[in-house]
């Protein structure tokens, strides 16, 4: 092999300027896809958004002491599906109510505070399911301290269904972008093979088989695809990190910046890079074949 | 009550009657004295009638005065009680008015609170509606909206409960107020009635005072008149005593002349005693002494009266017997004593029976001890009274000392 020229980067040697442009374009595209895939990984589609919006409210009886209510909140918080359980005393509830209904305060001068305390239970994004919610709600209803459990039974199924659809749509769009990357890559590969057909014929006359050439080119495309996607994902992740740091409202949708370095996020990113490498290789092979077949 | 003066008069009358009876038995020379005695007797009887009439009027005036005084006292007591009752009612009305004022104030406050609570509730409903409308445009906070709606329901329920509570309290207070008003009206009506009664009592008391003053004046006038009459009677008694002495003197002189004509000359008959009467004395009838002899206190006039006889209460229609042997010296009507019968027992001893209905013996008829001489009158009460007087030598003696009478 040493006497023969390497075919791994044959395209770089034969058409450098084109390939630079393609590489830049792919990098930028992978930046976008990397941003998207990390966002999807962190948010779980719209699960985090929904989990941030949805909560079970356990309204306590009026005579429940704060210590008992806080004890109950601590017990609820350790349930597997529960992300947080916070007790709010009647005073805080009254203030919250007045914020929601400004103008009420002046109407109840001497009437006192009619509000009871409550415990707000929020779920983990990945455990925001009907079964988990029913389990927690039924457990709370059996507690004597609890007067009423507000679990949104009327609208929760619609919410969960909408969440599922939104998540699927998110991943679908992401898949479409990947598919677009594949198709564009295939077209670019075909066009390059057509453009370099003379050079490849020359190599074939010198004994370089077409299969070997295609494999070399595919391997090079896979490596470059992996590296480009990794770099793009890193850049996209960095951009996401900066966005989360600068725009806190995104945390409610995507998640906290600290989750970027979670193993599952990194594993997902690596998987994405591998997928991008495979897609690059496939695009190279299929593009070359299409060029040879004249399609 | 008017028996005291009657006793005095009866004594005078008895003396006069006895003298009038004795005079005819004296010499014809004493005929002018007898005429004088009859004349004096007539004057005495007239004066006695006038005195009796005055006494009756005085007694009536005193009785009316006493009754009037009693009425005035009773009216004063009633007025005092009435004033106390009015004062109590006044205090009650004052307390009720205080309670009424407080209740009215409470009702006004509750009405204001009720109006405020209703307004607040309506405003809260408006706020709730606006809040719900605003929340409808914010679908990204479903749980928070659900919670806010629930708490707004709690708030509205608490407000509605406040309104209901104030309404109930207002109704209770209004009911209490109505009850108090009724109570005040009843008490005021009662007070008006009691004031009317008090006014009536005052006018009656005033009228009774006027009548009492009239009675007082009448009483004084009658007492003055009675005093004057008694003075006249005393003077008359003195005249009768003088006449009696004159009769005795004439009798003595007659007996002396008769003794001078006779050879031996009979000594003057000494006054005898009832105990020395032959056969003794017996009771005129079975009965009880109700008026004693001698000085007795009259509570009506607050004076001491000299009784010359006794009064014996016996069944109506009872027969009256002579207490001893003698001769009927007089039987006739005497004003104030009804039919009077006098029995002369001799030796200056007389027995007088008054208030008889009928005589069963005639003047001049001889009677023995126990002879029925008369009968007592009938009476609706079934009881009648016999007047009995014993006189010895012109002096009245206590019949109970000579006759065993039931006291």
Describe this entry's structure for a reader.
The complex is a heterodimer of chains A (295) and B (407). Chain A is of the alpha+beta class and 295 residues long. Helices cover 67% and strands 8% of the residues of chain A. Chain A folds into two domains: 171 residues, no CATH class; 73 residues, Alpha-Beta Plaits. Chain A is built from eleven helices and four strands; from the N terminus they run H-H-H-E-H-E-H-E-H-E-H-H-H-H-H. Chain A has a four-stranded antiparallel β-sheet. In chain A, helix 7 crosses helix 11 and helix 9 packs antiparallel against helix 11. The model of chain A has no long low-confidence stretch (mean pLDDT 88). Helix content of chain B is 62%, strand content 17%. Chain B is built from four helices and 13 strands. In chain B, helix 1 runs antiparallel to helix 2, helix 1 packs parallel to helix 3 and helix 2 runs antiparallel to helix 3. Chain B is of the alpha+beta class. About 1% of the residues of chain B have low confidence. In chain B, strands 1, 4, 6, 7, 8, 10, 12 and 13 form an eight-stranded antiparallel β-sheet that branches. A three-stranded antiparallel β-sheet of chain B has the order 5-11-9, with no helix packed on it. The chains are: A alpha+beta (295), B alpha+beta (407). The interface between A and B is medium-sized, with 25 and 23 residues.
């Amino acid at each position: 092999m040493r006497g023969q020229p390497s075919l791994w980067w044959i395209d770089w040697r034969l058409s450098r300027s084109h390939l630079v442009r393609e590489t830049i374009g792919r990098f930028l595209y992978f930046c976008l896809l990397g941003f998207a895939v990390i966002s999807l990984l962190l948010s779980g589609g719209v699960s985090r958004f929904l989990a941030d919006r949805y909560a079970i409210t356990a309204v306590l009886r009026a005579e429940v002491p704060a210590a008992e209510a806080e004890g109950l909140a601590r017990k609820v918080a350790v349930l597997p599906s529960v992300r947080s359980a916070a007790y709010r005393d009647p005073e805080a509830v009254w203030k919250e109510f007045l914020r929601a209904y400004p103008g009420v305060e002046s109407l109840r001068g001497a009437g006192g505070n009619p509000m009871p305390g409550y415990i707000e239970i929020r779920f983990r994004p990945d455990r925001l399911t009907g079964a988990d919610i029913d389990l927690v709600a039924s457990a709370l209803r059996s507690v004597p301290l609890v007067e009423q459990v507000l679990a949104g039974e009327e609208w929760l199924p619609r919410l969960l269904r909408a969440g599922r659809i939104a998540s699927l749509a998110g991943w679908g769009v992401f898949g479409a972008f990947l598919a677009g990357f594949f198709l564009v890559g295939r077209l670019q590969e075909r066009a390059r093979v057509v453009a370099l057909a003379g050079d490849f014929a020359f190599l074939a006359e010198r004994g370089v088989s077409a299969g070997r050439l295609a494999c070399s080119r595919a391997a090079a495309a896979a490596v470059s695809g992996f590296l480009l996607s990794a770099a793009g994902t890193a850049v996209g992740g960095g951009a996401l990190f900066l966005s989360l740091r600068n725009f806190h409202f995104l945390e409610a949708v995507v998640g906290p910046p600290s989750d970027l370095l979670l193993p599952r996020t990194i594993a997902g990113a690596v998987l994405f890079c591998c997928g991008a490498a495979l897609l690059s290789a496939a695009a190279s092979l299929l593009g070359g074949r299409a060029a040879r077949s004249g399609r | 009550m008017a028996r005291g003066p009657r006793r005095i008069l009866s004594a005078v009358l008895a003396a006069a009657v006895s003298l009038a009876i004795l005079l005819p038995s004296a010499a014809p020379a004493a005929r002018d004295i007898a005429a004088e005695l009859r004349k004096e007797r007539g004057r005495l009887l007239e004066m006695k009638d006038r005195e009796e009439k005055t006494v009756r009027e005085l007694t009536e005036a005193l009785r009316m005065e006493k009754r009037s005084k009693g009425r005035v006292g009773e009216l004063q007591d009633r007025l005092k009680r009435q004033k106390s009752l009015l004062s109590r009612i006044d205090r009650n009305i004052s307390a009720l008015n205080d309670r009424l004022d407080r209740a009215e104030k409470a009702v006004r406050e509750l009405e204001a609170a009720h109006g405020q609570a209703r307004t607040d509730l309506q405003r809260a409903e408006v706020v709730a509606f606006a809040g719900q409308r605003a929340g409808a445009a914010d679908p990204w906070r479903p749980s928070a909206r659900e919670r806010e709606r629930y708490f707004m329901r709690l708030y509205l329920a608490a407000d509605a409960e406040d309104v209901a509570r104030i309404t109930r309290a207002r109704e209770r207070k209004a009911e209490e107020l109505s009850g108090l008003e009724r109570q005040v009206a009843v008490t005021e009506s009662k007070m008006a009635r009691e004031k009317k009664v008090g006014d009536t009592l005052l006018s009656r008391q005033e009228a009774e005072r006027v009548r009492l003053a009239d009675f007082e004046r009448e009483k004084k006038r009658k007492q003055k008149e009675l005093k004057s009459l008694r003075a006249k009677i005393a003077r008359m008694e003195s005249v009768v005593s003088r006449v009696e002495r004159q009769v005795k003197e004439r009798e003595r002189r007659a007996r002396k002349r008769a003794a001078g004509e006779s050879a031996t000359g009979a000594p003057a008959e000494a006054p005898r005693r009832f105990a020395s009467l032959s056969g003794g004395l017996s009771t005129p009838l079975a009965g009880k002494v109700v008026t004693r002899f001698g000085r007795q206190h009259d509570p009506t006039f607050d004076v001491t009266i000299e009784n010359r006889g006794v009064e014996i209460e016996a069944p109506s229609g009872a027969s009256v017997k002579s207490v001893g042997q003698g001769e009927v010296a007089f039987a006739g009507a005497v004003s104030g004593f009804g039919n009077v019968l006098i029995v002369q027992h001799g030796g200056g001893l007389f027995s007088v029976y008054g208030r008889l209905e009928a005589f069963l013996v005639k003047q001049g008829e001889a009677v023995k001890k126990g002879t029925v001489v008369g009968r007592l009158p009938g009476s609706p009460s079934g009881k009648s009274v016999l007047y009995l007087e014993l006189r010895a030598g012109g002096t009245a003696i206590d019949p109970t000392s000579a006759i065993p009478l039931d006291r």
